[in-house]
Amino acid sequence: MTLRSSLEELEAKDVVVDFTHLKEFRDSAVAVLTRPLAERKVQVRGLAGHHERMFRYFGLSTGTIASPRAYYTPEEVLA
């Protein structure tokens, strides 16, 4: 809850949250963090694609461009 408290106290509108060195990130944390981040321009770094998608499901843009599709052909992966 420390990150959530810090975000709520922060007055800045532009926020960068870096999860690069995070060892574990539970899905439930997305719901907890979405509210304090919702009113800000947010750039998120170091999250796995799954967690970036979860933030988007909660209506929060993470500042990264989503892949136009959720799958790739074997030829594209091996190219």
From TrEMBL:
Q: Where is the MlaB-like STAS domain?
A: 5-60
- Pfam families, alphabetically? STAS_2
What protein name applies here? MlaB-like STAS domain-containing protein
Organism, by scientific name, is Archangium gephyra
